[in-house]
């Protein structure tokens, strides 16, 4: 166990006079809080090591406040650790997870992926990102160096992080995107920018591209979970039931009446079935609306063959299978607003809205 | 139905079959239900069928059509069908959708449904009927 005396020796080098001068104040702070002398000595030493490591980054004259804060943090984290230990003492299990045999390998793969992803960023992006995330340089000083505003640096960092996430996932999968639309779409998802996602038609691309559909999951999970929408993939007739239940549950939060909920669920059921029958697969997005009044919007997208003649498909009684031709016209009657956009060979998008009565 | 609670139950009660749907069914489950029911009409020589749909929160075009088909197939097999328990909200949505059960008879609940079957099958022309008569 080390003592404060050794620390004094170790730090009393001519090129680090500042840190040595901090010892009395650090000792005073730590000893005032920790009764056990040996433990206190350890904490003093730990504080000084941290201050020493950071001394180059800390502005001259600020070293003392920095040391005081560090000392307090070090003491607090020891308390936290002790507390956790006390709380968990009754458990027989070892809280430190055992090292799995493949842990090293996973760590290595992850490390390689990060390295590769970083290498794919531009030189300027990489430098700024590392300066901020690793060396802890703040946006203001980076802005000074680069001759731009701090806001611009923050925005650039945000973009770089989004790009890094995309490249990391690609490197981890060791996959090269099959189309030149993949990267823009993944980037738009990663940065969480709705307008950009619409511009690159991300929703359609995810239906068409299996790689992006897979990679999009971790990218979208990351963002704030959006309470006001639910997205259901439609692949089989079991998904029709999931879609109408999902729509009902979401709409129930806006205090639609039971009847309105049933109407919405029925309309969703109809268009979801159209996807399964004619397109094979697609997705249904249900969103809650606040403006101009409470309502729910359902967007059903597929990448199927498209509808040759939308007017004919909307006509009562028209049917291409042995149903009753109620799919589209039936859903239209149930909802307040209804629009179909279809392109042959590209698929169909149905958008429909129900407003809450008296809302 | 593979494991878990039964999605539907088809019970025999004298010469009647009472089929209850317990939860939302997807299309293939509905079709399987239809086949099971039609088969059992033959196996038990049933004359009347009650289909209880009180647990369904949605009856869309496919669901309504399947129920109509069941009734028609049952008729061809010599049984009368009555659908009971359509919820008020479901009834509203079915009408809005432009979908009904057509000529299939419906009743408010199981009791009304059985009463309907009794009154239509209690005639001397249907001597095979047992039970439900005083």
TrEMBL record, chain A:
CDD domains: HATPase_RsbT-like. Gene3D superfamilies: 1.10.1740.10, Histidine kinase-like ATPase, C-terminal domain, Winged helix-like DNA-binding domain superfamily/Winged helix DNA-binding domain. It comes from the Bacteria. Keywords: DNA-binding, Kinase, Sigma factor, Transcription, Transcription regulation, Transferase. It is an enzyme of class 2 (transferase). Signal peptide: none annotated. Residues 259-358 form the Histidine kinase/HSP90-like ATPase domain. One of its GO terms (molecular function) is protein serine/threonine kinase activity. Its EC number is 2.7.11.1. The keyword Transcription applies. Belongs to the sigma-70 factor family. ECF subfamily. NCBIfam families: sigma70-ECF. This is Serine/threonine-protein kinase RsbT. It comes from Microlunatus panaciterrae.
TrEMBL record, chain B:
SUPFAM superfamilies: SpoIIaa-like. Residues 6-117 form the STAS domain. It holds the Pfam family STAS. This is RsbT antagonist protein RsbS. It comes from Microlunatus panaciterrae.
């Amino acid at each position: 166990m080390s003592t404060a005396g050794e620390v004094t020796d170790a730090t009393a080098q001519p090129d680090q006079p500042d840190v040595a001068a901090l010892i009395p104040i650090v000792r005073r702070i730590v000893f005032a809080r920790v009764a056990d002398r040996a433990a206190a000595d350890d904490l003093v030493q730990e504080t000084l090591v941290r201050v020493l490591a950071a001394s180059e980054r800390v502005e001259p004259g600020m070293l003392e406040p920095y040391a005081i804060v560090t000392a307090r943090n070090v003491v607090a984290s020891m308390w936290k650790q002790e507390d956790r230990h006390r709380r968990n003492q009754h458990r027989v299990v070892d809280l430190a997870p055992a090292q799995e045999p493949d842990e090293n390998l996973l760590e290595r793969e992850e490390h390689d992926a990060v390295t590769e992803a970083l290498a794919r960023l531009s030189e300027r992006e990489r430098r700024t990102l590392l300066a901020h995330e690793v060396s802890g340089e703040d946006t203001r000083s980076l802005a000074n160096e680069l001759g731009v505003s701090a806001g611009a640096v923050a925005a650039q960092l945000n973009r770089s992080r989004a790009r890094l996430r995309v490249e990391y996932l690609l490197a981890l999968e060791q996959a090269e995107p099959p189309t030149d639309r993949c990267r823009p779409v993944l980037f738009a998802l990663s940065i969480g920018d709705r307008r950009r996602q619409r511009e690159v038609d991300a929703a359609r691309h995810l239906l068409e591209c299996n790689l992006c559909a897979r990679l999009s999951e971790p990218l979208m999970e990351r963002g704030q979970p959006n309470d006001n929408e639910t997205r259901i993939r439609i692949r089989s007739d079991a998904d029709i039931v999931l879609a109408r239940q999902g729509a009902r549950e979401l709409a129930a939060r806006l205090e639609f009446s039971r009847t309105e909920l049933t109407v919405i669920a029925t309309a969703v059921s109809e268009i979801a079935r159209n996807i399964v029958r004619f397109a094979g697969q697609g997705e249904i997005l249900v969103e809650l609306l606040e403006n101009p009044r409470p309502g729910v919007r359902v967007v059903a997208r597929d990448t199927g063959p498209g509808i040759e003649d939308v007017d004919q498909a909307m006509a009562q009684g028209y049917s291409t299978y042995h149903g009753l031709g109620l799919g589209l016209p039936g859903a239209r009657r149930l909802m307040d607003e209804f629009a179909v956009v279809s392109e042959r060979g590209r698929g169909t998008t149905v958008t429909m809205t129900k407003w809450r009565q008296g809302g | 139905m593979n494991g878990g609670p039964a999605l539907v139950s088809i019970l025999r009660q004298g010469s009647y079959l009472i089929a209850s749907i317990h939860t939302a069914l997807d299309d293939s489950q509905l079709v399987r239900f239809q086949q099971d029911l039609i088969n059992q009409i033959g196996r038990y020589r049933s004359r009347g069928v009650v289909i209880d749909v009180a647990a369904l929160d949605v009856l869309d075009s496919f669901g309504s059509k399947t129920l109509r088909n069941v009734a028609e197939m049952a008729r061809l097999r010599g049984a009368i069908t009555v659908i009971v328990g359509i919820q008020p909200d479901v009834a509203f949505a079915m009408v809005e959708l432009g979908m009904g059960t057509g000529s299939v008879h419906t009743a408010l609940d199981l009791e009304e449904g059985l009463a309907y079957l009794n009154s239509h099958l209690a005639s001397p022309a249907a001597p095979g009927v047992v039970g439900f008569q005083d």
